[in-house]
Design a protein that fits this description.
- The protein contains 10 helices and 15 strands.
- The chain is globular and about 60 Å long.
- Strands 3, 4, 5, 6, 7, 14 and 15 form a 7-stranded mixed β-sheet that branches. Strands 10-9-8-11-12-13 form a 6-stranded parallel β-sheet, with helices on both faces. A two-stranded antiparallel ribbon has the order 1-2.
- By secondary structure, it is an alpha/beta fold.
Length: 325
């Protein structure tokens, strides 16, 4: 095993997709309680793009290189893992590389029937949906979940996890084709927001108990309009604008809750707790075929710039994944 490895660096520290360049850097060494993973595949996520642009620095102690999730084989074990185990893992950074280290508690076994590429599409997305829809949003079986961005990595996962949990799912997307994809993934109702007001569509279905919103901006007022009594709106991004206008009276009338969270800055112990909860609840759904990662495209690790450009283009359905060989 070489002391160096290929990884992806951001030329100049920040910039457009073209700033992503393969470089040779030192292979990381695991600290006590960490495992070393030979990376076979790494998920590409919107937070990576935000970091590349200079707006999302890694948490203290995390690698400066991009990459929040990987799948591969354990080279140096710790905790319950031994060399040769096949795992996928949530990282604070450093996934765009041939090797990565992580807290042993943040790794999960690759579900039966999945390959490395599919498994690399799981951790960041599944952890995010679980924490926000099932914990902050407190979604219960029989309730109605509305998912914006139906064809994003988060969206495709949230639709399937909501259905596996026994919820009714309303999916929204920009365009008839994307709305149709939402239905194919199991959404009970899919709304093309270019052609229809999603709040009106949701109200025809009796309203929503939980809204997963990654858009913000002018979506917020419609989220509130679509909400049932005691409903919850959960924000995980603000692609349509970070400032919203809130009618306090309307929120009070609906006894609504507006919340949100990020995943990356959470403590190691909190991520370990989430990993255990995800493995207990979601992994059986995956192995039963109720939740399947949707991989839109793969790119060689050295072509990370093309992967970012593809994700930024917005035509993808599901996840974009880098492969090391």
């Amino acid at each position: 095993m070489s002391e160096t490895m290929t990884a992806i660096a951001i030329e100049g520290g920040k910039g457009p997709a073209e700033a992503l360049k393969p470089v040779r850097i030192a292979r990381p060494a695991p600290k006590p309680g960490q495992i070393l993973i030979q990376v076979h595949a790494a998920g590409v996520n919107r937070p990576d793009i935000i970091q590349r642009m200079g707006f999302y620095p890694p948490p203290p102690g995390s690698p400066e290189t991009l990459g929040l999730e990987v799948a591969g084989e354990v080279v140096v074990g710790a905790g319950r893992w031994k060399a040769g185990d096949r795992v996928c893992a949530l990282l604070g950074g450093g996934g765009y590389a041939e090797y990565a280290v992580c807290d042993a508690r943040h790794a999960l076994p690759i579900p039966q029937g999945l390959d490395f590429v599919q498994a690399a599409a799981l951790p960041e997305t599944v952890f995010t949906v679980y924490a926000n829809v099932f914990e902050h949003g407190a979604l219960k079986p029989g309730e109605t979940l509305m998912v914006h961005g139906a064809t994003s990595g988060i969206g495709t996962t949230a639709i399937q996890m909501g259905k596996a949990h026994g919820a009714k799912v309303i999916a929204t997307a920009r365009g008839a084709d994307k709305a149709a994809t939402g239905r194919e993934l199991g959404a009970d109702v899919a709304v093309d927001t270019k052609a229809e007001d999603f709040a009106e569509a949701a109200k025809r279905e009796g309203g929503c108990d939980v809204v997963l919103d990654m858009v913000g901006g002018d979506y917020f007022a419609k989220d509130l309009d679509a909400l049932r009594m005691d409903g919850r709106i959960v924000f995980i991004a603000s692609l349509g604008g970070g400032d919203v206008s809130l009618s306090i009276g309307r929120l009070m009338h609906k006894r609504g809750v507006v919340t949100g969270s990020t995943l990356r800055p959470r403590t190691a112990d909190e991520k370990a707790r989430l990993a255990a909860a995800v493995e207990a609840l979601v992994w059986p759904w995956i192995e039963a075929g109720k939740v399947r990662p949707q991989v839109d495209a793969t790119f060689p690790l050295t072509e990370a710039a093309k992967a970012h450009a593809h994700l930024e283009g917005g035509a993808h359905v599901g996840k974009v994944v880098l492969v090391t060989a």
